[in-house]
Amino acid sequence: xxxxxxxxxxxxxxxxxxxxxxxxxxxxxxxxxxxxxxxxxxxxxxxxxxxxxxxxxxxxxxxxxxxxxxxxxxxxxxxxxxxxxxxxxxx
Length: 91
What we know:
By secondary structure, this protein is an alpha+beta fold. Helix content is 20%, strand content 33%.
């Protein structure tokens, strides 16, 4: 992972939250690689990485509550679980 704009504790918590979110809301997640956790242009926390060694993602996270605000998925990203389509599943 690239150097981060956040302290170690914040980075570790953000990484764990992002991985939990992906594992609990998407089908067939086998490998999650977090590539970067950084402060975006708007001052918020952003996390980018890949799943299953092929599909990229970008997560916007609330750094005070460690909740996922939004996720962008590249073509080939695993399908969201049926039960998580209308409301995020617990993570």
